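Q: What does the predicted 3D structure of Anhydro-N-acetylmuramic acid kinase look like?
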Amino acid sequence: MLGLISGTSMDGVDVAAAELRLDGDVLELRPLGSTTVAYPPGLRRDLLAALPPAPCSAAELCRLDTLVGQHFATAAGIGLELADGRADFAASLGQTLYHWVQDGRARGTLQIGQPAWIAEATGLPVVSDLRARDVAAGGHGAPLAGVLDALWLADEPGPGVALNIGGIANITVVGGARPLAYDTGPGNALIDLAAARVTGEPQDTGGAIAAGGTVRADLLDALLADEYYRLPPPKSTGKERFNADYLDRALAQVDIADADLLATLTELTARTIADACRAVGAVRVVASGGGVRNPVLLAALRRLLDVPVLVSDELGLPADSKEALLTALLGFLTWHGTPGNTPGTTGAAGPRLLGSITPGAGPLRLPAPAVHPPTRLRVQPGDTA
């Protein structure tokens, strides 16, 4: 099966192929390969331009939904090659364009990337729109990584934290007093914005700019004063909050050198993640996502936390493709009639089957529902390229 997602960094579509097999209550996952299919520069520019608080017309939304769907279809074709041309279905988390949170509650969420294009290009049925049902049930629809993390780390010492650092950072607490997962705040979102202004490149590659700067305590304190960090979980956020206007407001009264700005924003991400990990008494942190490729950010996390901080590759799950593999897992659960949310982590009223299914080239034939929902996930050695 295939898993596809484009995260809040909006740099391209991550696609992973995997074998998933349910043996009793143990779900076995074997990665078959993964890659990222970058968005064309014009499409990425238009996606970023459509983010709030900028206006976005119905015409532009329709155009983006189609173009992103076609790009996801291209990525799915590459994923099918990674699976040697054989897959039961594709699962897509799409491209989040807006996540509506009001008064601490998720009211709606919008992922674009019309799945019919994937079905038409590959002939596969497509499981998509995987967040909306959780939101309708009173949850935040994010982070859904809690489902994978709770299964994968079930036998590890706890409380442990599974951390993903994408555009937004999120944690899952496994083995704690209660199930818990939430967005901690910006991951790479503000760092990427500042880097693009300084260098024209969409990221601070290797943390090179931040490494030459000094953290400005006055700016860091002002950023840490944001009320989001004091909201109780479950909670979720996105670029509708941590965006260019947000950064401009923070910088309005500050004269700061480029390197110091990147150093401060990197420290903000590390500090807010570390605060969240300490609050739940984490004994170990297992990190994934693009942020783990930033050595300055990873070093800051290890400095701020007095517990081991590992990269998920060390436990057999590729950090770069974890979210695409999560998507494949969510699709597998829906395909087999098993709930795909963890209510204690998203805030939903109860377990729910997630998503909608777009038929492929032939009649839609689902397997019999699983007799037992999985309670463990074992990652088998595979091709992680």
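A (community wiki): The structure tokens above were generated from the sequence. The two ends are 16 Å apart (CA to CA). The first strand starts at residue 2 and ends at 6.
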